[in-house]
Amino acid sequence: MATITKKKLINEISRRRGLHPNEVRMVVQSFLDCMTEYLSDGDRLEFRDFGVFEVVKRKKKIGRNPKNATVPIVIPERRAVKFTPGKKMKSLIEQGESEAKSGQQVFG
Fold it and tell me: Which CDD domains match (predicted)?
């Protein structure tokens, strides 16, 4: 498995669609900015077959200091982003091989 950076993703989309990387970069950045804005407002983002991004509250809990397990530490309540994969995404992940490697549109 590899780590795919935003730059690698932009270059791959550019190659597949025949678009200039700068055009793709602007669209990808706008997409990420919109997602961040919607999630920070508490909105739920649903991409059919791909999955759902939503903000959840993590309750306050008591943890342990790894350096001194006898000392409890309070982990405060916080908001976090949760991703739930869609049926098609789950299926592709379970198969281990992605249909997307063929260059065909997988989600649509």
Answer: IHF_B (cd13836)
- Relative to beta strand 78-85, strand 61-65 is unpaired
pTM for the predicted model, two decimal places: 0.77
In this predicted model, what pLDDT tens digit does every residue of 42-79 receive, in sequence order? 999 999 999 999 999 999 999 988 888 888 999 999 99
d(CA 67, CA 58): 24
In whole angstroms, give the CA distance from residue 77 to residue 59.
5
Q: Tell me if 52 sits within 8 A of 88, measured CB to CB.
A: no
Helices 6-17 and 21-40 sit at what angle, rounded to 10 degrees? 130
DSSP state of 74: E
